[in-house]
């Protein structure tokens, strides 16, 4: 696995293989542990890992939240429970990727308009 993003489909498919509970907060802890380990090993962030960090910022923009609450707390606030919040994260990640891909495709198809 080259990036955290490569793990996302595996975590989604079998969350309790990676997380102690099917919980947004367990996912957040797993992500922070992964990020810390890469930093301590001196491994640079891949483009995919940077995209995931952009996604976390996108969540704040999407929900129009200007608070110091974590992204996991933000998702929980808009969910039924911790499990639902984790499912919402996976759904929103797919939406973010599709949006990002459609914007990239639009820029390729019409490079002049994408700069405006």
What does this structure look like?
This protein has 116 residues and is an all-alpha fold. The chain has one domain (4-106). The chain is built from seven helices and no strands. Helix 5 crosses helix 6 (82-109).
Question: What's the pLDDT, averaged over the residues?
Answer: 86
Radius of gyration: 16 Å
- Separate helix tally: 7
The SSE order reads HHHHHHH
Largest sheet: none
Unreliable spans: 104-116
Gross morphology is globular
Terminal CA distance reads 37 Å
By secondary-structure content and strand pairing, the structural class works out as mainly alpha
Hey, roughly how much beta strand do the residues contain? Answer: under 5%
As for the number of domains, it is: 1
Question: What's the structural blueprint in terms of helices and strands?
Answer:
Layout: H1 4-13, H2 15-18, H3 24-40, H4 47-62, H5 71-77, H6 82-109, H7 111-114
Helix pairs in contact: 5-6
List keywords for this structure.
mainly alpha, 7 helices, 0% strand, globular, disordered C terminus
Q: What does this entry show, briefly?
A:
The chain is mostly helical.
């Amino acid at each position: 696995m080259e990036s955290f993003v490569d793990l996302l489909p595996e975590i989604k498919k079998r969350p309790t293989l990676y997380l102690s509970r099917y919980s947004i907060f367990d996912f957040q802890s797993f992500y922070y542990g992964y990020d810390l380990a890469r930093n301590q090993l001196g491994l640079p962030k891949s483009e995919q890992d940077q995209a995931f960090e952009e996604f976390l910022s996108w969540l704040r923009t999407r929900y129009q939240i200007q608070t110091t609450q974590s992204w996991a707390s933000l998702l929980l606030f808009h969910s039924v429970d911790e499990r639902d919040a984790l499912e919402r994260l996976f759904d929103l990640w797919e939406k973010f990727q599709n949006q990002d891909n459609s914007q990239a495709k639009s820029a390729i198809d019409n490079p002049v308009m994408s700069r405006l």
